[in-house]
Amino acid sequence: MEAALPAAADERFIEELVSRAQADGLQLTGEGGLLQQLTKRLLESALDGEMTDHLGYDKHDPAGKNGGNSRNGKRSKTVLTDVGPVEIEVPRDREGSFEPQIVKKRQRRLTGVDEMVLSLSAKGLTHGEISAHLAEVYGAEVSKATISTITDSVMEGMSEWQNRPLDPVYPVVFIDCVNVKIRDGQVANRPVYMALAVTAEGHRDILGLWAGDGGEGAKHWLRVLTELKNRGLEDVLMLVCDGLKGLPDAVGEVWPRTVVQTCVVHLLRASFRYAARQDWDKIAKALKPVYTAPTEDAATSRFLEFTEIWGEKYPAIVRLWENAWAEFVPFLQFDAEIRRIVCTTNAIESVNARIRRAVRARGHFPSEAAALKCVYLAVMSLDPTGTGRKRWTSRWKRALQAFDIAFDGRLSVAHI
């Protein structure tokens, strides 16, 4: 019973505070409201306590007389909190050696504001839109320059993330790109490439982001893949991509045993670009026997049948598949579990969809660094609850067993 008394007393105290505030016509929230005043009092009380600990004696205590360092007035400072801007009085000492911890020197924002800014930025809001949102919803005046400073702070974390050590083996790495608009004299599309891996435990791991200039070839990809190898990635069983120029040659240089597989879904989408809309369903139906064939020989026969029917009307589709054939057929040698995983880049499409939403909301970017920052923030905001990770892992369990068997135990090295 005695233990319940403090809680009951606290409840009565809170009720009394709220009642007095309402009686005096004081708002609970908003500018000058009860929460702001309480935050001010609590912060100032904590700062006075820190000063007492620093000097070794209480305010007005005779023990401090002629004791060397002493209090030296206060200075006003406005800090941005979750309940809006709060003006506080920060105590000073004569020696200037006081280093407050609850509100550090030069600190203008308390916990929560930075996270809010980064979350809104990850959703694609511009600095001006974030500033207006904070002012409207929280009554917090945050300049665009301050928001830029907050978002710029993630770049150091991005550098660490981009250079972190990797696992020695990944069963599959997907490489794809999202086009962003960058104003470099004039607005132009630039690709931002992403490498997404599946770990030996079935987790999704985004390995890195790289900006391109649209003219990438083997030299560009050799640099990217060598970077991944230098971070500890010694072996990739299968790399799935969308016919990126020069990538297969670079893969052969860095990981000679890696199978390079063209994404079948991308190949189908590219085929539709050459066909009339009314023929899309027919083209899809005619190509299905090709990519579901039990063997490479059977796929070749089915493709010849497709060519006889559609080759005259759509020769560009035939050339597209002929040019991609060497990177299309590898997955035909594996069982259904592996085919289901590697014949599409759906694994990376959900990530790209999140990035595209953020990119579209921004329109265009003033620089490559600004575009990469936006994409990085979008990537970091994926699946904050972790529920997607569980679904992802369960989908991969059977496929990972098939991978280890098909690739002669190379995946088992990741568990050693």
Q: Can you give keywords for this protein?
A:
416 residues, alpha/beta, five-stranded mixed sheet, two-stranded antiparallel ribbon, 7 strands, 51% helix, 17% strand
Structure explained in plain terms:
- The protein has 416 residues and is of the alpha/beta class.
- The protein is 51% helix and 17% strand.
- The chain has 16 helices and 7 strands.
- It has helices at 4-23, 34-55, 113-122, 127-138, 144-152, 154-162, 218-230, 247-254, 264-273, 280-291, 296-310, 315-328, 336-342, 346-362, 368-380, 387-406; strands at residues 71-81, 84-93, 169-184, 186-198, 204-211, 235-241, 259-262.
- A 5-stranded mixed sheet has the order 5-4-3-6-7, sandwiched between helices.
- A hairpin with a 2-residue loop joins strand 1 (71-81) and strand 2 (84-93).
- The longest helix is centred in the N-terminal third of the chain and has 22 residues, at 34-55.
- The chain is elongated, with a radius of gyration of 30 Å.
Note the total helix count.
16
User: H/E element string?
Assistant: HHEEHHHHEEEHEHEHHHHHHHH
Category from helices, strands and their pairing: alpha/beta
Helix fraction, binned, reads 40-55%
- Let me know the number of strands: 7
SSE layout:
Elements: H1 4-23, H2 34-55, E1 71-81, E2 84-93, H3 113-122, H4 127-138, H5 144-152, H6 154-162, E3 169-184, E4 186-198, E5 204-211, H7 218-230, E6 235-241, H8 247-254, E7 259-262, H9 264-273, H10 280-291, H11 296-310, H12 315-328, H13 336-342, H14 346-362, H15 368-380, H16 387-406
Parallel strand pairs: 3-6, 6-7
Antiparallel strand pairs: 1-2, 3-4, 4-5
